[in-house]
Amino acid sequence: MDVPEIILVFDTNTRILNAEELLEDRGLPFELVPVPKEVNPNCGLAISFKQPAQAMIMPALAAANLLPSAAYRRQGGVFSDWPLT
Description:
Blueprint: E1 5-9, H1 13-25, E2 31-34, E3 45-50, H2 54-63, E4 70-75, E5 78-81
């Protein structure tokens, strides 16, 4: 079975770069990827991770006041909104 992927979109390049640095420093499993055109046709970067890692990634971002502006769940090529809370 395909493990769902979570895509986090940030409102500024500074915020995504700060989030990337934080997650790297903590050794958390994520990738920096282009924002999928299915969720936002504008260029930009997003953070992607497999859904089981949310229990580590989201609290780390929240504690650093670096929550994304939007989040999406991708499974089998289908995107859906994913709640941030």
